[in-house]
Amino acid sequence: MISSRALIRIGHQVRPQHIVTRLRCTRFTAPSISAPKSRLLSQSLPTLRKRRNDPEDEQPTSKSSSAADSAPEDPLDFSSLISAYAPIDTHFRAQLSTIAHGGRFNPDHLGSLNVPVKVDGEDMGSFPLRELAQVVPRSGRTISLLVNDREYIKPIMSAVQSSPDFNQQPQRSEDNDLELLLRVEMQRKDEVLRRIKETAQAWRDRVRQARAKHDKQIKDWKKAGTILPDVAKRADKELQKLQDKKIKEIDGEETQTVRALDRN
Q1: Same domain, yes or no, for 158 and 257?
Q2: Residues 93 and 130 in one domain
Q3: Does position 58 have pLDDT exceeding 80, yes or no?
Q4: Hey, what's the torsion of the CAs at 142, 147, 151, 157, to 10 degrees?
Q5: Which end of the chain is more exposed for a tag (fewer CB within 10 A), N or C?
Q6: Is Protein biosynthesis tagged as a keyword (predicted)?
């Protein structure tokens, strides 16, 4: 028999007290079912990270970055072209100066002659003549080569004789075993003028080639839509002005070289 104290009346039903206690314990432990929610949340994180690294999502950013890199900061800035002109100018000015002051037999030009050297049958490499001998102009249209070592005499003689610029065999000096003598050949004036004209024209061609590379870049910008057609047209006009100025400068250098030749 269950005592009356052990009974609890709920509505019209009567339940034992230990059943109610069991129900209370069940409600107390019920919050444990929230644990799977935490696991579900942790399982969903990789999915979120994967979506952030989706290449399709990053593609527009990559394209916009590429377009920004290819876009010019100032399409009317020609400093890169002007910088490209500098080494060209230096090269051809030196050539014109060499022609005007002795031509092929200019000491600087002769000193740059490449001389292959062999010592006791062993290849030692090639050296500029100026590193193997002193180039000294003498009176009477003669150039003296004061050789640094006896081992260099035959290589120098061979290099000078085989060079199309000189095409002569240096002569041994009677007074100095380490001295070679070169005879400076007279150059016809019309031949020198022809060489000056050819050098100046080659200079102009190099300038035009440098400008053509910049023209292509502007056309690429225009085709890609990074610059407006009006800006491209203006850039072309400015480039033409820059080229005309450089060509005029070359004309002046050619004229000065011819005048220097007449004075000599």
Answers
A1: no
A2: no
A3: no
A4: -20
A5: N
A6: yes
